[in-house]
Amino acid sequence: MPELPEVETVVRTLRPRLCGARIGAVSVAHGGVVRSSPGSLDRLLSDSRIVRVRRRGKRIEMDLDDGRVLRVHLGMTGRLRLEPAGAPAAAHTHVVWHIDCGHGRLELRFIDPRRIGGVWLLATETAARDDLGPEACDIGAAALAQRLGRTRRAIKTALLDQSLIAGLGNIYADEALHAAGIDPRTPADRLSSATVARLAKAIRRILRLAIRHGGSTVRDYVDGDGRPGSFQKLHRVYGRAGRPCRRCRATIRRIVLGGRSAHYCPACQRRRGG
DNA sequence: GTCCATGTTCTTTA
DNA sequence: CTAAAGAACATGGA
Q: How do residues A218-252 score in pLDDT, each as one tens digit?
């Protein structure tokens, strides 16, 4: 569910109420989603204050006043919701942080049916270790070319590698490649610099547009207040296999690349980048 | 029953 | 050695 635009939207809905808030008790219903090193589970029951809420790639990170960082990754089906204390809990609510802030008593809840997402409590130095590529929403042509030039994988697969570029997932990688007119099977290191420049621009434009629409809700995604996004209505290829391309009317195709589905228009997206 | 799913990480293969 | 492909994780919807 959550790629950069969805995670950014969640962060924007949580930030005003969580910044400066104090974390009281923490209840963990399913320890499997807590992926910090052993022994840190009880330290999640910290009585600390949140000083900043930010996004890095698809990660949500809350800086605590003692320097530690609470990191949440939503995986495929994860949700982070801020609800009034005592409100009924959704199924698969695994961790609840009890929050005191200017808005009264709230509960921050991590919900994840598939439990692919997770929660980490990290030391300052651990959280600062930067293993992700540049933010996809800001990526420049030169940075993207430098990253893509070092792999021969299909461009679609390379765009999903968070260590090359951070924030793209299956939806926005497909949408950006369509917008840039690039066949998703093209080896990443074979794109011309003009094509890479066009791709960088398409990535920035699509992601910023998606953020303005509150992200895409295909199945599960909702923001911190439970509201779905609307960008799915503007998808041009993702989930549209067998339907006509919105630009040229050719039939959208679905193939499998790197174990993930890839959707593209065989007419708009030809090798060489037409 | 089958297939598929917005992601990451570990293992296996080339 | 490295890069790439594949499996695994767990649940639910079509």
A: 998 999 999 999 999 999 999 999 999 999 999 99
Which position among A12, A56, A201, A260 bears the catalytic label? A260
Judge whether residue A31 contacts strand C, using its CB and a 7 Å cut-off.
no
**Residue A103: strand, helix, or coil:** coil
Q: How many CB atoms neighbour CB A25 within 10 A?
A: 9
Question: Which residues of chain A (104-133) touch nucleic strand B at CB < 7 A?
Answer: 114, 116
pLDDT band at A273 (very low <50, low <70, confident <90, very high): very low
Assess contact for A268 and A248: CB atoms under 8 A.
Answer: yes
Q: Which token pair is A56?
A: 């890095």
Q: Coil, strand or helix: which one is A1? A: coil
| C-alpha closest to that of A4 among A211, A201, A268, A270 | A211
Q: Which pLDDT band, with edges at 50, 70 and 90, does A39 fall under?
A: low
Q: Which residues of A95-128 are buried (b: 16+ CB within 10 A; e: fewer)?
A: bbbebebeeeebbbbbbbbeeebbbbbbeeeebe
Query: Helices A170-180 and A193-212: crossing angle, nearest 10°?
Result: 130
Taking the CA of residue A44 as centre, how many other CA atoms within 13 Å lie in the half-sphere pointing to its CB? 24
Find the Å distance, CA of residue A193 to C1' of nucleotide B7: 29
What is the spatial distance, in angstroms and rounded to an integer, between the CA atom of A106 and the C1' atom of B4?
36
The rounded radius of gyration (Å) of the Cα atoms in chain A is 20
Q: Measured between alpha carbons, how far is A228 from A221 in angstroms, rounded to an integer?
A: 6
In the predicted structure, residue A135 carries a pLDDT above the cut 60: yes
Task: Record the pTM.
Answer: 0.96
List residues bridging with A55 in a β-sheet: A60
